[in-house]
Amino acid sequence: MISVRPGTSEPFEAALREARAVIAGAQGFRSFEAHRGVESPDQYLLLIGWETLEDHMTGFRESEDFARWRALIGPYFASPPVVVHFDPLGCPA
Length: 93
Description:
Elements: E1 2-3, H1 9-24, E2 29-36, E3 43-50, H2 53-60, H3 64-73
Antiparallel strand pairs: 1-3, 2-3
């Protein structure tokens, strides 16, 4: 979950498109979805799929790509992002 500073949604979304290309090249990257809040349009939910937790926490977070990712989107943050990891349940829809 990312909250951006009021009035910066448009440049944040442009930066996010560029940042998506950075993260897509990371080892273990599987998928990317971005959603904008309806009631709170300065809030974004990013759903990023990884092969393993280590691919995200070590491979990406400790890489130069992470520094580039953060340099692109970080200036728009109103507060630090909330990062939570989940495992899929595999339940049918």
